[in-house]
Every structure is written in structure tokens, then in C-alpha cells.
Amino acid sequence: MKSFVRSAWTVLAILAGMSAPTLASDSNSWAVAVGVGAVDQDAIGGAPTASLELEDRFTRAFSLGLRGGYFTKDDCCGEQRDTIYAVIFGRARWPRDGVQPFLEAGGGRYEFEGHPLDGWFGGTGIDFQFSERLGLLLAVRYHSVPRPPLGALPDFAEVQAALHFDF
């Protein structure tokens, strides 16, 4: 867990450093998103999930961000199986008013049943912009994570709705 937190702070510092030159020009904006959804993981089946995301929009079409997520479920024997992740991502939008389709991909650190593992993900979705400062992301993602020694396969598919606040 300690390495997970350290990795998340490192990625956040990198994002802040990359965006510093554009902050002065007002050409970008930041967004914070809170998401809920469901996952289907090979090892545990379906489970609810929650996430928190910080996104730096460099242009209307491209952004970089950091997302952390968590889900858990009891297996068939009553043992709790936790999955935590912190990923950095790139998101490409088709800029237009109203609904904006997007593609995203990234990678980072996944902790599955106490095993820290590096993985990647890819996904697609739609961003509904309700106002200048509020929107809703609907996303579908696939996360690929290597199998830990003598463990179950931690890959999972995710469907998520995230309310985002732009500033």
C-alpha cells in the first residue's frame, strides 16, 4: 500500500510539472471527477466500483490525467478480494458542442489481493457537458493486469459514470 501511495503522488507531481507552462496562458483547464460503476473481474465476477480522477485538459481535444479506483468482493469462500489502482491516462476527444465522444488509454499500478502489479487499460466513452463547469462521463474500459504468482487472473472490464467538475 505504501508503494501505491508513493506512485500516485509521483504521477500527480509529474502532471503538475507538465501543465505548469500552460497554466499561465489560460489555455487549459482542470477537471475533478467522482465515478461509480461496475466491474467484471475474471477472479471475482461482478462488483461495484468507485474512482476519483484529476484531469488536465491541454486543449479541447487532448488531456492527461490521474485516476484512482477501488473495488472489493467476497469470493466463494467468504474471503475479501480487494483491487486498488492508480493510473495515468491520455484522453482524446472529438471536440464539439454538447456530447463529445472520446478514446482513452493509460497504465499504472494495480494492487490485487496484496500483490502490486503494473498494468494498462484502454477504453471509450461519451462526455455530456451540462454547463461550462459540470459534465458527466460515461466510459467502458478494459484493464489488463498480469497474473500474480500462483494467483487468479486480475484482468477486468469496467463500466463507469463519473460526474466531473471543471475549473
If you had to describe this structure to a student in words, what would you say it looks like?
Residues about 20-25 have low confidence and may be disordered. The chain contains one helix and eight strands. With about 170 residues, it is mainly beta. The protein has an eight-stranded antiparallel beta barrel with strand order 1-2-3-4-5-6-7-8. The chain is elongated and about 50 Å long. It has one domain (about 1-165): Porin (Beta Barrel). It is about 15% helix and about 60% strand.
Biggest sheet statistics: 8 strands, antiparallel, barrel
Q: Into which percentage range does the β-strand content fall?
A: over 45%
Q: Gap between N and C termini, in Å? A: 30 Å
Portion of residues within helices: 10-25%
Number of domains: 1
Q: Class by helix and strand content?
A: mainly beta
The CATH class name reads Mainly Beta
Q: How many strand segments?
A: 8
For the largest beta sheet, what order do the strands appear in spatially? 1-2-3-4-5-6-7-8
